[in-house]
Amino acid sequence: MHNLIHVLLLGLWLVFAERFSIEVLLVGIFGVILVALINKKLVEKIRLSIGLKSIPYFFEYLFILLYEIIKANIHVAMLVLSPKPKLSPSFVKHRISLKSDLHRTILANSITLTPGTLTVSMEDDEMLIHCLTEEFGKSIEETRFEKILMKLEELYYD
Q1: If we measure between CA atoms, which residue out of 75, 146, 143 comes closest to residue 115?
Q2: What parts of the sequence cross the membrane (predicted)?
Q3: How far is it, in rounded angstroms, from Cα 93 to Cα 121?
Q4: Pick from 128, 151, 154: which is nearest to 58 by CA?
Q5: Which of 58, 80, 103, 112 is deepest in the core (most CB within 10 A)?
């Protein structure tokens, strides 16, 4: 199972690298080893919590994240390229029901990775998110990120 985490991290690196070459692969392998060594306790915790039941949720989450990133990129591009952009920057408070710091961090980072939104702070059960438009703020409530992370968290604590 320990090797599965390394393979998943390397796969994620290759997806985000945008191109494939021996250099990119070697940097990815070195990076995975370095991250695993620096975060040994976290990796051990993840290793214990990941089972075969969580793998479909991982891929579902990754698919939804990529879909949301592409959708938001198109929306932001349309806003920027429009002759009169209708920006309405605002801050949105979003209540979260996730318990573990790991899953909360994954949610906050996923929101930040999605263009047009930025997680500014996370205190107790509330996140403060900056949005380019009100529509982005409303879409945070509708996203499935948190639902999938809650399912993973249930597996994590069982």
Answers
A1: 75
A2: 20-38, 58-81
A3: 10
A4: 151
A5: 103
**How far apart are the C-alpha atoms of 42 and 7, rounded to whole Å?**
16
**pTM of the predicted model, to two decimals?**
0.67
Segment 100-134, tens digit of pLDDT: 888 888 899 999 988 889 999 998 889 999 998 88
pLDDT exceeds 60 at position 48? no
Q: Which two tokens stand for residue 71?
A: 């959708």
CA distance 7 to 30: 12
Distance CA 153, CA 158 (A): 8
Mean pLDDT of the chain: 83
Using CA atoms, how far apart are residues 68 and 134, in angstroms rounded to an integer? Answer: 16
Domain that holds residue 72: 54-155
* Cα dist from 154 to 27, 52, 102, 131, 147, whole Å: 34, 14, 13, 30, 11
How many structural domains does the chain have? 2
